[in-house]
Design brief:
This protein has 4 domains: about 5-65, no CATH class; about 85-240, Succinyl-CoA synthetase domains (Rossmann fold), CATH 3.40.50.261; about 245-285 and about 360-490, D-amino Acid Aminotransferase, Chain A, domain 1, CATH 3.30.470.20; about 290-355, 2-Layer Sandwich (Dna Ligase, domain 1). Helices cover about 45% and strands about 20% of the residues. The chain has 19 helices and 18 strands. Helix 5 packs parallel to helix 10, helix 7 (about 145-155) runs parallel beside helix 8 (about 175-185) and helix 16 crosses helix 18. It is elongated.
């Protein structure tokens, strides 16, 4: 694929195809030079790589990086069943290639299976003396074709095994083609088998024999591990279809709609932070109580109403990273501190946002924007003032299922850090982050007038102290309703 001219048609067609059969995409134009070549050749707009990854996930497509990967994926998906589990056994007659294979399995999210005592006993009964029946299962030097066949049958019958990579390094006393035929005889179950045969012409003969028996053959364990990873991706795509996304509703739909219509009637392109926070709250997003003040006295009154400690933030056009620009005063504990902060930070004609202080915690960013071809795109990643530098972010197209929202956490360093809380018995904050991701996506689907949403930072506090979207930025689309049309809608 070089480009996409109609995002909606692509999503519809790709989703329809991937519901019936695997869809594998090799995309050109992923580097600046490649993008320039695509643009000169097709005239198509080039999507950013991470956005295209989100598009592929939504469509249920498998992305590959190279022409070789494309062919290996197609070969494997045409011959072998999906791989729901991650437990793989390496059957080999050489330790080095097996170790390389184990490394590459891990890179594709797979692992070596732990063989049960019963399986080990069965292997010892059908393999040459001295065979190492751990995992890898090493037949050592001199195994015969029947040893591969019997061992492979035992492994495919073991409940603790999801797939097998069978490696053969040629030796003078055993023809590679006969070993391949023995592998093919044992394969054919509901569990995938990958053949790896080293060598020159004899390896080609073995590969032909395996392919005739619907077993993919590869010249290296690295490519076999990639192929098993593709089968695992296909299984996850199929599993992901079983959970239809639930439509999320705002807590106060009237307030959400009114706030946006009023902003559009006034010709605004950006909601002020208080209006953004109120819209977020109407959609059930956890924002600390806050209000706007134009004088030091108003700021003090607000602080008294909200309860100390509070935060005071400078509101000015074009000011995005307030803390980096020195526009935030934290942890104000009395009227004197609030008044002093207002005088120090707020310029004439500006406003201050006074907000109840949120507890400290891990800072993440949750946002969304409207892509011109594919519509809303949701983002999650490491937040705070260094979000652009860290680039620890991932994207999805809404509506999001719970599994898709959770996968966004698993794909980022900051998300994996948060997920450790579940293992420690504190899942509440994780559930709250998943809920925010889904609600932000639904907001974008429900309100076409929203061009962009940024909640940065969202503070994930220590267990039991909640999740807090302390800064809400909402940009509106360029299409502004006429005042008469808006007044009709408001009435």
């Amino acid at each position: 694929m070089e480009g996409i001219r109609d995002g909606k048609r692509f999503l519809e067609a790709a989703s329809e195809v991937s519901a019936r059969k695997p869809l594998v995409i090799l995309r050109a134009g992923r580097t600046p030079d490649g993008a320039r070549a695509v643009a000169s050749h097709t005239g198509a707009l080039v999507l950013p790589e991470r956005i295209f990854q989100a598009v592929a996930r939504y469509a249920g497509a498998i992305l590959v990086d190279h022409l070789q990967d494309l062919m290996d994926a197609i070969l494997t998906l045409a011959m072998q069943p999906a791989l729901p589990g991650t437990r793989v056994v390496i059957l080999t007659n050489a330790g080095g290639p097996a170790a390389v294979g184990a490394d590459h399995l891990a890179r594709h999210g797979l692992r070596l299976a732990d063989l049960s005592p019963i399986t080990r006993e069965r292997l010892q009964a059908v393999t040459p003396r001295g065979t190492m029946v751990g995992n890898p299962v090493d037949l050592l030097g001199g195994p015969q074709p029947e040893h591969y066949e019997r061992a492979l049958r035992v492994l495919l019958e073991a409940s603790e095994v999801d797939a097998v990579m069978a490696i053969f390094v040629p030796q003078a006393i055993t023809p590679a083609r006969e070993v391949a035929i023995a592998m093919g005889k044992a394969a054919g179950s509901s569990r995938p088998v990958m053949g790896v045969v080293f060598g020159g012409e004899t390896a080609l003969e073995a590969a032909r024999a395996l392919h005739q028996m619907n077993v993919p053959s590869f010249p290296t364990p690295c490519r076999a591990a990639f192929a098993l990873g593709v089968l695992h991706q296909w299984a996850k795509i199929q599993q992901g279809r079983r959970e239809p996304p639930e439509r999320i509703r705002p807590l106060d739909s009237g307030k959400a709609a009114y706030g946006l219509l009023e902003a559009r009637m006034r010709g605004k392109r950006m909601l002020d932070p208080q209006a953004g926070a109120e819209l977020a709250a109407a959609w059930g997003l956890p924002t600390p109580p806050s209000g706007l003040a134009v004088t030091p006295e108003e700021a003090v009154v607000l602080a008294e109403q909200l309860g100390y400690p509070v935060v005071l933030k400078r509101i000015a056009p074009g000011l995005i990273h307030k803390s980096r620009a020195g526009g935030v005063a934290l942890n104000l504990r009395n009227a004197h501190e609030v008044r002093e902060a207002f005088v120090r930070l707020i310029q004439p004609g500006e406003q201050a946002l006074v907000q109840r202080m949120a507890p400290p915690g891990v800072e993440v960013i949750i946002g969304a924007y409207r892509d011109p071809q594919f519509g809303p795109v949701v983002m999650f990643g490491a937040g705070g003032v260094d979000v652009e530098a860290l680039e620890d972010v991932t994207f999805r197209l809404p509506p999001l299922t719970r599994a898709e929202a959770r996968a966004m956490l698993e794909e980022t360093w900051i998300g994996r850090r948060l997920l450790r809380r579940e293992r420690e018995g504190s899942p509440e904050e994780i559930e709250a982050v998943i809920d925010i991701l889904r609600r932000v996506g639904q907001m974008m689907l429900e309100h076409s007038e929203i061009a962009e949403i940024d909640l940065n930072p969202v503070i994930v506090a220590s267990p039991g102290k909640g999740v807090h979207g302390v800064d809400v930025r909402i940009a509106l689309s360029e299409e502004i309703l006429a005042p008469a049309e808006t007044a009709t809608l408001l009435s």
